[in-house]
Design goal:
Layout (H helix, E strand, L loop, with lengths): L11 E2 L4 E2 L4 E2 L4 E2 L4 E2 L4 E2 L4 E2 L2 E4 L4 E2 L4 E4 L12 E4 L4 E2 L4 E3 L8 E4 L4 E2 L4 E2 L4 E2 L4 E2 L4 E2 L4 E2 L4 E2 L4 E2 L4 E2 L4 E2 L4 E2 L7 E4 L4 E5 L1 H6 L4 H15 L5 H12 L3 H11 L16
Parallel strand pairs: 1-4, 2-5, 3-6, 4-7, 5-8, 6-9, 7-10, 8-11, 9-12, 10-13, 11-14, 12-15, 13-16, 14-17, 15-18, 16-19, 17-20, 18-21, 19-22, 20-23, 21-24, 22-25, 24-26
Antiparallel strand pairs: 26-27
Helix pairs in contact: 2-3, 3-4
Length: about 270
Amino acid sequence: MIIERDIHPTAIISPDSEIAEGVKIGPYAVIGPEVELGPETEIGPHAVIEGRTRLGEKTKVFQFASIGAPPQDLKYGGEPTRVEIGDRTIIREFVTVHRGTHGGGGVTRVGRQCLLMAYCHVAHDCKVGDNVIMANGVTLGGHVEIGEHVIIGGLSAIHQFCRIGAYAFLGGMSGVNKDIPPYVKYWGQRDHLYGLNMVGLRRHGFPREVIEALRDTYRMVFQGNDVVGEALDAVEVRFGGMPEVKRFTVFIRSSRRGVPMASNGEEEL
């Protein structure tokens, strides 16, 4: 049902789609039969939204983006999987977001207030948290999980099934094939951690005592003489009641792919 009239006459819109009030759709855009567009969403020229795809309110999709296409997975057999995009997320030119697969949970999800810059790719079954920024050309393999407030530098590639912890910062042209813990900086081709993401932590208002505890945690786990398991035990004894530290240690303990080593220094990225 089409309610809003601010739709260019050349746009192709299925009568079985759900278009909320205030939606704007540009020239030659294509909206498929199972698509749901939230209030005040804007779809740019030549964008294609297909499959079981839901866009939250005030989401902006720029020209030539492709959202909800079948996954690049040879096992995919046309199952009714979907894509979910959160409110106020911005999807720039030529971004691709593919629907999920039956074996991966059936949904690809991008959170609220994210920014996916031009040419980014979000593969099937990825879970991208709120307030994530992906610079130009970032590529996520299938089943990747990105925590909230993560920033990923341009032309970086994340291997399938990897996890990036909340508030982490990845420098441009990084290649990731292991899990990146929360709060840290990472850069390089399957390379090293470079300390905490201090700029991000301060920008998001983390108290000084929390930042100091995370700094000590990082040093104990990655720069101490103990093996990782013993270091995590010591951290939990020392800071066990602090949720931010708990998030850090739980992330590392639950990693299936392992985490990178730390650099000898803390370089500025």
